[in-house]
Amino acid sequence: MNNRLRFVLAILLAIPCFFVNGEDPYLFHEWKVTYGTLSPLGVPQKIILINGQFPGPRINGTSNNNIVVNVFNQLDEPLLFTWNGVQQRKNSWQEGTPGTNCPIPPGANITYRFQVKDQIGSYYYYPSTALHRAAGGFGGISVLSRALIPVPFDTPEDDFMVLVADWYTKSHTELKNLLDNGRALGRPQGVIINGKSGKGDGKDEPMYTLTPGKTYRFRFCNVGMKDSINVRFQGHTMKLVEIEGSHTVQNVYESLDVHLGQCMSVLITADQDPKDYFLVASTRFTKEPHVATATIRYANGKGPASPELPKAPEGWAWSLNQFRSFRWNLTASAARPNPQGSYHYGQINITRTIKLVTSAGNVDGKLRYAINGVSHVDPATPIKLAEYYGVGDKVFKYDLIKDDYEPASGKEAQDKITLAPNVVNATYRNFVEIIFENHGKSVQSWHLSGYSFFAVGIEPGRWTPEKRRNYNLLDAVSRNTIQVYPNSWAAVMTTLDNAGLWNLRSNSLERNYLGHQLYFSVLSPNRSIKDEYNMPDNELLCGLVKDMPRPTPYKSG
Fold it and tell me: What positions does the domain Plastocyanin-like occupy (predicted)?
């Protein structure tokens, strides 16, 4: 039996177990993940390719589509993919992080099956194992609204995915060795746009071609490792229309800060003289910014792009003010026909407040990053499997961190850092407030899987309950990432209505790898497939559960 026939047979057998909504279409993908040699910054490097592509193939879908991706790992290392921003409703089995799944061994394959349930917007995928993201393996995900649900702008002439990233010329194995030996990664060597840096000398082939008078959608995602990136178009303004699955008030910007892990959509109208222009991406908050360009060409246009690039803004106060200008479009529908503003999050009583204070320090002479004094370590048995098999007490402890953590004070004070799996026991359907306090000198960015949250506030200083008076409780954007500026705090709110195990992580590759993450365990007391799907039949097993008998499935009622 060949691989393709085996793949289709496996899908047909598995579909009844996962998707009771049989009328929603299925989109099938088959990926061969390999190494190849490319030169994103002009230096030959080992790059992770998907079907020979870097970036990987774009996943295009529509709200409620079922996505099926059969991944063949042809690398020499174990591998996982995570789907950044896809909420995986009732299905954290498909999350693809080391805390939820065993990695795909070299030479093996696994099939991911998930539904983009009640979602629209711009997202991306990437390898979540080791430091593989530093070698590529990432790609875009775009989810359109269903035909009967109105979108608050006319259908654009075309829809482009723009993956911007800072980039290292060292291999992912060299970078991993640095971190494993207690050293920091240092500054990246450049910036890439869809895997290329652009020479900016007028000789680059156009990345995008526009028809004069037409309007285009550009979906930006910062898939990088360390830096915030500012994006802007030469001679054109951008109308912001969507952030991570939410339609926004359509303000117009000359440039936009896209922080690590964030995605947003803009509309660009080709209304300038017909010639070439540059799309510019440059690092923010760095002493010497790295810059990349991509050429935008007007069809039948004449003339090269001007060598004079539009300047980036300076300082993070500008960036904070831009964040405050982002607003939820209360009258627009998202994945469902009801307006976004019909959900009045500001009127819901907070059930639990969790304050997360980040820190850095040395443990046994090696650099580590901690949340409330705990630096996360992935156990050999994934946390989700340990819970499901009833052996969690042998793998991790719940609630090592406190909700109201206060760091040590004084110039010489340094918090003790504990290395352990960091798992917060959360209550299903609670409405929680999460506070991020950044006591450091660089911008941080955080992602919560399984949910979207309302980004209600960012301010300098320390958070206190009195700061709630400054929250935006009307039209904060519902999204899945939030940046936290130096010596500042950020507040988000969400309802934990998605049962499963969900990763809260730093979008910084170094910080994430060295402990800046935790997991929320959100278990339904009913143990019912109405709340959470059973473990898939094709789930890979490892660690303590490898040879254990399969647990009793969740009941249907």
Answer: 33-146, 159-300, 408-526
